[in-house]
Amino acid sequence: MRIKGDIIRLVRKQKKLSQVTLAAGICTQGTVSNIENKNVCDSLEILDAICKRLNLSLESVLDDNDEKKLTSLLNQVEELCNTFKHKEAYSLLKETTINVSDFQNKELEVRWFYFMGITNLLGFNNTTDSLFYFYRADELGDSNSIYAILSVNSLGIVYEMANELDKAQVYYEKSIDMLRKMTIKVPIEATKIFFNTAKFYSLTKNYKTAYDLASEGMALNRSYQSLYMLDLLAYEVAFNNFMKSPNLTAPDFSSAKAFATFNNNQSLLNVIKKDEQSLHR
User: Fold this and answer.
1) Beta-carbon contacts of residue 27 (< 8 Å; ≥ 6 apart)
2) I want to staple 56 with a disulfide (CB 3.0 to 4.6 A). Which of 51, 76, 108, 266 is the partner?
3) What share of the chain is helix, strand, coil (3-state, %, to 5)?
4) What range(s) does the HTH cro/C1-type domain occupy (predicted)?
């Protein structure tokens, strides 16, 4: 994709970072050099990570007007999905006249397919269309594509909803394996993968695996100094720790309650209240 490499170079120098320092944990120094001097970057994930390190918005460095518009649209869609407004997010996707297949940017196309899949699934329970979109995202994405990995994880959700738990486990495990093989820093969006997979293993009573995965999700948040889904992750940690530890007399939901109160997550607070009344030894 075409980008404004001069902006990245200017901000990097203002922050007194070398190309090697900027690239650390994200990409090679040569990739940063290509971004700054040739105004090209083949990976949206890499570009996004570099922008975050420089406190730049992704839109501010994209040179292609339609790509900027689509990136902005997908950012809005993601915000709506994060607050469970999947029908509204789907409407935004359907209203756009931008043809994503016209771009050379495959990662943008992968992201588009993921959000078409998740809005169809969680907005309308449309498993047929969501399967198509998730499989296309998996096919198009590379090993560092977080939205391809999210799509594989979402295939697990589809099969879990259909009560095909063996199939669901295959895709949940595949998504975790894909995360382990990423060669860039795992993005914060991977929190969803840890949570969804932990929740599945809790459902199937593999409480230790569920606890470990939810704990990894919390550790990922800690590395980003983020609160992303921490209320839900803290609940899974507390619940599964209790279920796997016969010496505990009751689960410790104190962290989950604090995060849920902060996020005004009343539905989770209701679940915790019910569990506190019923879960004790």
Assistant:
1) 43, 46, 49, 50, 184
2) 51
3) 75, 0, 25
4) 8-61
User: 56 and 165: one domain?
Assistant: no
Coil, helix or strand at residue 155: helix
Could you report the per-residue pLDDT of 184-221, keeping only the tens digit for each?
889 999 999 999 999 999 999 999 999 999 999 999 99
Considering 182, 215, 237, which residue would you say is the last residue of a domain? Answer: 182
Question: Does residue 86 contact residue 118 with C-beta atoms inside 8 Å?
Answer: yes
Token pair listed for 243: 């279920």
- For residues 74 and 82, is the Cβ–Cβ distance under 8 A? no
Same domain for 42 and 93, yes or no, is: no
Looking at the DSSP bridge assignments, the partners of residue 40 are 2
Q: What CA–CA distance (Å, rounded) separates 130 from 51?
A: 30
Q: What is the pTM of this model?
A: 0.81
Residue for token digits 């860039």? Answer: 184
Q: Which of 182, 217, 252 is the last residue of a domain?
A: 182
Q: Which domain holds residue 233?
A: 186-281
